[in-house]
């Protein structure tokens, strides 16, 4: 009787110890899950922040490209105008020179 009572107490003690170990393991799992959730939230925030930054940079780059294209178009137009003005001035110079030559030729004949 003493021996079976002792075995029973040992068995109950082992079950209690096992139950305590399971409880502690569950606590650790819960803590790890909570930590993982916190890290997930932090990671999601970082990703959102990076996406926002990326979109802002993309928008800035698009604006820079548009400004550069507009500046290029202005420079191209200014260069075209300058070349046209120079050619026009040279043509007028040549026309004036031609008239002078013709006047000189007429003066010689007269």
Summarize the structure in words.
The chain has 110 residues and is an all-alpha fold. Helices cover 98% and strands 0% of the residues. It contains one helix and no strands. It has one helix at residues 2-109. The radius of gyration is 47 Å and the shape is rod-shaped. The chain starts with a helix and ends with a helix.
- Order of H and E elements: H
Overall number of strands: 0
Distance, first to last CA: 160 Å
What overall geometry do the principal axes of the alpha carbons give?
rod-shaped
β-strand amount: under 5%
| Share of helical residues | over 70%
Which blocks of ≥5 consecutive residues have pLDDT under 50? none
Write the layout of secondary structure elements.
Elements: H1 2-109
Keywords:
110 residues, mainly alpha, 1 helix, rod-shaped
């Amino acid at each position: 009787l003493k021996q079976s009572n002792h075995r029973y107490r040992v068995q109950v003690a082992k079950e209690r110890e096992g139950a305590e170990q399971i409880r502690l393991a569950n606590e650790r799992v819960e803590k790890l899950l909570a930590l993982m959730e916190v890290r997930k939230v932090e990671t999601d925030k970082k990703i959102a922040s990076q996406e926002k930054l990326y979109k802002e940079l993309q928008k800035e780059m698009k604006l820079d490209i548009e400004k550069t294209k507009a500046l290029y178009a202005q420079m191209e137009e200014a260069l075209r105008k300058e070349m046209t003005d120079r050619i026009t001035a040279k043509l007028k110079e040549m026309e004036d020179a031609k008239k002078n030559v013709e006047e000189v030729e007429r003066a010689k004949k007269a």
